[in-house]
Specification:
With 410 residues, the chain is of the alpha/beta class. The chain has 2 domains: 254 residues, Ribonuclease Z/Hydroxyacylglutathione hydrolase-like (Metallo-beta-lactamase, Chain A, 4-Layer Sandwich), CATH 3.60.15; 141 residues, Rossmann fold, CATH 3.40.50.360. It is 35% helix and 21% strand. Strands 1-2-7-8-9-10-11 form a 7-stranded mixed beta sheet. Helix 5 crosses helix 7 and helix 10 packs parallel to helix 11. The N and C termini lie far apart (66 Å). Bound molecules: MU-OXO-diiron. The site of MU-OXO-diiron has 8 residues, from helix 2.
C-alpha cells in the first residue's frame, strides 16, 4: 500500500505524527468540533490519542473514534507503512478508542491483537467478530524485541476492561482515559499549554468520567508510585512529559474529596420564587465565610455542575414543583450526580410550589440517597416567598455554612 492510501477519507488531507522520543509517536486524531461526549459538554473539543511504538515488533497502542480512522492511518503512514504493524494493543474498548479498530485490523492485518480478558469480551460484544484477541493478565510482559511492554490492569478505571500499558525501557505509561481531558489543541504536550486550562479540563474530566471510581484511583496511584514513570500518555488531551507530580497530586486530591468551604447551589425556577430562595441561601452561606457557586440549570450544563461539585463541601438543590414532581432540569442533574457518586457533602433542599409541594421533598430524598449530610428539613414555600420564608432561607444558608466549617475541622 502506498502512503497515499491512508489519507483521510474524503478530504485528501495528509497528517503527520508527533515524536515523543526515538521510538514512540503520537498518531491520534484531533476533534475540534465535538461538543457533546455522551452527555458531557466538551466546549473545547477533544483528541483521540493513539501511539505508535517503533520497536522491532511495531506496535499500535489504541486506535481512534471510527470517523477518524483515515487520520490515524495517515499519521501512521508518515512514519511507517501501516501494513508493517505487528501488534495492536487495546487498552480500553470504549468506541472513542476502539471504533476504528476493525478497519485498522482489516487494513494492516497485524500478527496479534492484545487486550485484557474483559477487553476481549467487550470488543467481542461491540464488534461481534471472529477476530482473535489475546488476553493479557496484570503484570504480563510482551517482548517487542528491543522494547518491552508490561500490562497493568486498572479494572473499573473506568470500565471493566481498562488497563495501562507501560513501555519499560522508555518509562512511558500509556494510561488510556486516566490523566486525560477533553481538550483539542495543536500542542501535544501539557507543558505547552496554559496550566489553568489544564487544571479546569482535567478536573472536568475527572468529575464527569472518573469520579465514581475514586477508590480505584487511589489504589492505582499507589501502584503507579512503584513504577518509574517519565511520561504519561493518556488517550485524550495532552501528554505529560513534565509536571507528573502535579497531575498525580490533583488526582489524589480529587479522589479524596475532603470537606471544604465551597458550596454549590443548583436550582431551577419557574416564576422566580425558587430563584429568590437561592439568593437568600447564598447570602446566609456567604455570611459564614463560605465560597458559593450558584448555578441556575437553564444556563448551566449538568457536566459543569459536576465539575463544581468535585471540589465542594456542600450541595444545596432547589426545585419548583411541577405536576406533582421535580422540575425536569433538576431531575436530570440529580440523576446524573447520583451516578457520579460525589462524597463528603453537606447539603439542603428547597423549593416553591403552587398547591402540592412534592419538589423540595423529592430533592431531599434524592440527596439523602446520595448520602449527602442534610441540614434541616426541606424549605418549601407556597407560591412566592414572604419575608419570613426568605429569613428561613438565609438561616438555612447560615446553618449549612456552620455545618461545613465543623466538617472541615473534624
Ligand atoms: Fe475515552 Fe472511556 O473512553
Amino acid at each position: 500500500m502506498s502512503k497515499g492510501d491512508f489519507r483521510n477519507r474524503g478530504s485528501g488531507s495528509s497528517f503527520g505524527a508527533v515524536k515523543l522520543n526515538d521510538h514512540v509517536y503520537w498518531v491520534g486524531a484531533v476533534d475540534w468540533t465535538l461538543r457533546d461526549f455522551h452527555g458531557y459538554a466538551t466546549d473545547r473539543g477533544t483528541t483521540y490519542n493513539a501511539y505508535l511504538v517503533m520497536a522491532d515488533k511495531i506496535t499500535l497502542i489504541d486506535t481512534v473514534k471510527a470517523p477518524f480512522c483515515g487520520e490515524l492511518l495517515s499519521r501512521i503512514a508518515s512514519v511507517v507503512d501501516p501494513g508493517k504493524i505487528d501488534y495492536i494493543v487495546s487498552n480500553h474498548a470504549e468506541m472513542d478508542h476502539s471504533g476504528a479498530l476493525p478497519e485498522v485490523i482489516a487494513r494492516v492485518k497485524p500478527e496479534k491483537v492484545f487486550a485484557s480478558a474483559k477487553g476481549v469480551e467487550a470488543l467481542q460484544a461491540h464488534f461481534h467478530w471472529d477476530q482473535p484477541v489475546t488476553a493479557v493478565q496484570d503484570g504480563d510482559t510482551l517482548s517487542l524485541g528491543n522494547r518491552t511492554l508490561s500490562f497493568v490492569l486498572t479494572k473499573m478505571l473506568h470500565w471493566p476492561d481498562s488497563m495501562f500499558s507501560y513501555l519499560v525501557e522508555d518509562r512511558l505509561l500509556f494510561a488510556q482515559d486516566a490523566f486525560g481531558m477533553h481538550l483539542a489543541s495543536s500542542e501535544r504536550f501539557a507543558d505547552e499549554l496554559d496550566k489553568g486550562v489544564l487544571e479546569y479540563e482535567a478536573a472536568k474530566y475527572y468529575a464527569n468520567i472518573v469520579l465514581p471510581f475514586s477508590a480505584i484511583v487511589k489504589k492505582t496511584i499507589e501502584k503507579a508510585a512503584a513504577i518509574d514513570i517519565a511520561t504519561i500518555a493518556p488517550d485524550h488531551g495532552p501528554i505529560w512529559r513534565r509536571d507528573l507530580e502535579w497531575i498525580l497530586g490533583l488526582y489524589a486530591r480529587w479522589a479524596d474529596q475532603a470537606p471544604n468551604t465551597k458550596a454549590v447551589i443548583v436550582y431551577d425556577t419557574m416564576w422566580g420564587s425558587t430563584g429568590m430562595m437561592a439568593r437568600e441561601i447564598e447570602e446566609g452561606l456567604v455570611s459564614e465565610g463560605m465560597r458559593v457557586r450558584s448555578m441556575r440549570l437553564r444556563e448551566s450544563h449538568r457536566s459543569d455542575v459536576a465539575t463544581e461539585v468535585l471540589e465542594a463541601g456542600a450541595l444545596l438543590v432547589g426545585s419548583p414543583t411541577i405536576n406533582n414532581n421535580l422540575f425536569p432540569t433538576v431531575a436530570d442533574v440529580l440523576s446524573y450526580l447520583k451516578g457520579l457518586r460525589p462524597k463528603n457533602l453537606a447539603g439542603a433542599a428547597f423549593g416553591s410550589y403552587g398547591w402540592s409541594g412534592e419538589g423540595a421533598k423529592q430533592v431531599a430524598e434524592a440527596l439523602a440517597s446520595m448520602r449527602v449530610d442534610l441540614v434541616g428539613d426541606p424549605i418549601n414555600t407556597e407560591y412566592v416567598p414572604d419575608l419570613d420564608a426568605l429569613a428561613r432561607c438565609r438561616d438555612l444558608g447560615v446553618q449549612v455554612g456552620q455545618k461545613m466549617k465543623q466538617r472541615v475541622t473534624l
